[in-house]
Amino acid sequence: MEILDKLITIFKKEFGENENIKKYFAPGRVNLIGEHIDYNGGKVFPCALDFGTYGIVGKRKDKKCRMYSLNFENIGIREFSLENIKNVPEDDWVNYPKGVIKIFQDRGYEIKQGLDIVFFGNIPNGAGLSSSASIEVLMGTILKEEFNLDISMVEIVKMSQKAENEFIGVNCGIMDQFAIGMGKEDHAILLDCNSLEYNYAPFKLNNISIVIANTNKRRGLGESKYNERRASCEEALKNLQENGVKINSLCEMTMEKYLEVEKYIKSLEGRQRVKHAVSENERVLKAMESLKENNIEDFGKLMNSSHKSLKEDYEVTGLELDTLVEAAWEEKGTIGARMTGAGFGGCTVNLVEDACVDRFIKNVGEKYRNKTGLEATFYIGKPGAGARKLEDR
After folding, report:
1. Domain containing residue 359: CATH number
2. Greatest alpha-carbon span in the chain
3. 307 labeled binding residue
4. Residues 115, 242 within the same domain
5. What Rg do the C-alpha atoms of the chain give, in angstroms?
6. Is 281 inside any structural domain?
7. Cα–Cα distances in angstroms (integers) from residue 101 to residues 98, 106, 138, 386, in the given order
8. What chemistry does it catalyse, as a reaction equation (predicted)?
9. Listed residue (49, 29, 50, 38) closest to 284, CA to CA
10. Does the annotation list 130 as a binding residue?
11. Is residue 276 part of an annotated ligand binding site?
C-alpha cells in the first residue's frame, strides 16, 4: 500500500484533487523456457511477475490527457488531446500509452473524456522484463474499466501489440503482452504465439524465488544476429520441404523425426539451429509436465539444458550470459539457470531456494565482476497475476 499512497499524493500534487481516483497495476514478465522458437512454430513458457507498473487515474471533463511518470521525472507532465493523437518524439515514453488509446479509437471504441494518469514502474528499464508491454497492457486495462468497454483481455493484449508494432514501430511478438495480460498468480503459461492457444501450469514456488540477473551489457549486434538465425531456420525449413518432409514449421517435428531428416538440411549451421528449435520445443512440453507433477527439480534441469542448447546450437549467449549462468550452476540452492530473451546480453532467469538467495547474489555477482569487469543487477520475484484494477482496501 505504501507505493499506492505515495502515488496518490503525487497525483494530487501534480494534477490537483479528484474525488474519483482509481488504481491499476500490470506486471512485468519473464520467459522461463522456450527461447527462439516462437517464430519456428514452437511454444513459449512465460509467467507474470509480482512487480510491474502502477497507474493512478482520474477522469477529466474535457478531451485532454495528462501523463506523468516517476521513472521519467525529467520529462515532466506531457499533454495531448484525444482528438489529435500522434507519435511525437519529445513525448518519449508517453507514446506507448498514447499508441494504445489511438488503436482503441481506430477500432471504434469510444473514449469519451480525457484522463490524468501518474505512472510508476518498478520493472528496471532495459532489463528485458517488458516495461513497454507492461505500460501498454496497463493502459488498455484502464480504458476498459474507465469507459466500461466490452473487450476481453486477449483483445487488449492484441491491441497492445498492435500499438507497439504500428504506432511505436517496433516489430515485437505477442508473448510479452500476453503474459502480462493473462498472467495468473502461482502459474506459468504454455503459449502458442501463432494460434494464441494457451494452458496454465501450476508454478507454486514454495521457499523458492525467481532471481533475474541483468548482465548490464549493451547489445551491439543483437538485431543482425537475430535476423541471421531466423533466416537460417527458414532456409532449413525450405530444404526439408523440398525433400518431401511435410511440415509447415520446424517445431512440428520431434527429435526422433529430426534425426531421420537432418541429412536434407544443406548447411551444418542450419542443422544446429534446427536441432535447438526442435529440442527446445520438446523441453517446453516436458517443463509443462514437470510442473503438473510439482517436480521443480526436473524443471530446473530442463532450464539448464535449454541454456546449453542456446549456447552450443543456437549460439546466442556470449561471455556475459554464460558467466552468469555457469556461476549460478555452481551455487548451492540453485534449482536451474538459463539465459532468457533474445541473447547477446540481457538477462538470465534463475530458480533459487529462498535461504540461499543472498549468498547467490553475492557470489554470482562477484564471479561475474571478476570475469567481465561489469556489475550485474539482480531482481527477486514470484509468479504474479495479470493486469488488473486494484480494489480499494
Report:
1. 3.30.70.890
2. 70
3. no
4. no
5. 22
6. yes
7. 5, 9, 11, 20
8. alpha-D-galactose + ATP = alpha-D-galactose 1-phosphate + ADP + H(+)
9. 38
10. yes
11. no
Burial 359-370 (b: 16+ CB within 10 A, else e): ebbebbbebbee
Cβ-contact 69, 120 below 8 angstroms: yes
Residue 132 assigned as binding residue: yes
pLDDT (tens, 9 = 90+) of the chain, 393 residues, equals 689 999 999 999 999 998 889 999 999 999 999 999 999 999 999 999 999 999 999 999 999 999 999 999 999 999 999 999 999 999 999 999 999 999 999 999 999 999 999 999 988 766 667 789 999 999 999 999 999 999 999 999 999 999 999 999 988 889 999 999 999 999 999 999 889 999 999 999 999 999 999 999 876 555 678 889 999 999 999 999 999 999 999 999 999 999 999 999 999 999 999 999 999 999 999 999 999 999 999 999 999 999 999 999 999 999 999 999 999 999 999 999 999 988 888 899 999 999 999 999 999 999 999 999 999 999 999 999 999 999 865
Q: Which residues of 127-143 are buried (b: 16+ CB within 10 A; e: fewer)?
A: bbbbbbbbbbbbbbbbb
Rounded distance between C-alpha atoms, residue 42 and residue 35, angstroms = 9
Is residue 236 a part of any domain in this protein?
A: yes
Instruction: Print the domain residue range for 288.
Output: 211-381
**Residue type at position 360:** F
Contact 293, 287 (CB under 8 A): no
- Annotated catalytic residues are 176
The CB density around residue 251, as the number of other CB atoms within 10 Å, is: 25
DSSP 299: H
Give residue 41's identity as a one-letter amino acid code. G
Q: Is 128 within any annotated ligand binding site?
A: yes
Residue 388 lies in a domain: no
Dihedrals phi, psi of 80, to nearest 5 degrees = -155, 165
